[in-house]
Amino acid sequence: SVLILLIKTYLRLDHKAYGFSAPKDQQVVTAVEYQEAILACKTPKKTVSSRLEWKKLGRSVSFVYYQQTLQGKKLEMIDFNIRIKNVTRSDAGKYRCEVSAPSEQGQNLEEDTVTLEVLVAPAVPSCEVPSSALSGTVVELRCQDKEGNPAPEYTWFKDGIRLLENPRLGSQSTNSSYTMNTKTGTLQFNTVSKLDTGEYSCEARNSVGYRRCPGKRMQVDDLNISGIIAAVVVVALVISVCGLGVCYAQRKGYFSSKKSNSSSKATTMSENVSIFKPVILALWEAETGGSRGQEMATILANTVKPRLY
């Protein structure tokens, strides 16, 4: 019929831009995410009585078209071919069409494999920019996107102006000591200077689209040598004053007086014990009835007067 002829003519077209592609002589179909793709079954022998099956290959084989029924709402059959509407990255993979038809030798089976590749625009890249840095040091800025397919290339901007991949081609007023890797997204300053102070942003771009991260400011300051020297001098003075104070205290005998006081207290206690010891012994013997104890107690009572503190 006229409708079938129009459909076959439509399938012969090579749709390459921003929609889908089903090249007649190629087994790889590329489609932009959220658009559509047509998977063509190119087995040479297809008849009205042929039996058709479409399968998606992977860890496990799943049916896409089986027993004249499509296994998905966004799928549509056009003759022996499948049209996928609103393609997503989960649709990417290998598909196989199998056509079987009766013949004189029995059941004849033919198959064709098609690879669907889904192109995805980059997401907003993740940018790492230090908020501050010291001049003369090595500083690295990082930019990365994990969504884009094919893998995007990266470009850095300073204050909204694109940085050259080769800084030596720029003006003399800019820092020419940085290295930009457009594949990995790194921007490294070998010796960062105050001229590098500014707002930095990164753009990820591939054949489908591009996205840029919000700008982040990096402040570069000179190393304050005078401040460091002043701090070292103050610390040295504090240590010196503490040392002089310890020496002065030792000369004045503050530490030795404490030691002598403690030793004198120990001597006094031992004297008291030596004085009261015979008194206690004498009283104990007197209590037990010993004549010698009574005599000793009388003598000590008349002669020994213990010191009171």
From TrEMBL:
Residues forming the Ig-like domain are: 23-115, 122-226
Please state where this protein is localized: Cell junction, Tight junction; Cell membrane
Known SUPFAM superfamilies for this protein?
Answer: Immunoglobulin (SSF48726)
Task: Give the transmembrane region(s).
Answer: 225-249
Give the keywords, sorted: Cell junction, Cell membrane, Disulfide bond, Glycoprotein, Immunoglobulin domain, Membrane, Signal, Tight junction, Transmembrane, Transmembrane helix
Q: Which GO terms describe its molecular function?
A: integrin binding
Q: Does the keyword Transferase apply?
A: no
Source domain of life is Eukaryota
- Recorded protein name is Junctional adhesion molecule B
**Example of a GO biological process term:** positive regulation of lymphocyte migration
Membrane topology term reads: Single-pass type I membrane protein
Q: Does the keyword Glycoprotein apply?
A: yes
Q: What is its main location?
A: other
GO cellular component labels: bicellular tight junction; cell surface; cell-cell contact zone; plasma membrane; protein complex involved in cell adhesion
What InterPro entries is this protein classified in? Answer: Ig-like_dom, Ig-like_dom_sf, Ig-like_fold, Ig_sub, Ig_sub2, Ig_V-set, JAM2
Family membership? Belongs to the immunoglobulin superfamily.
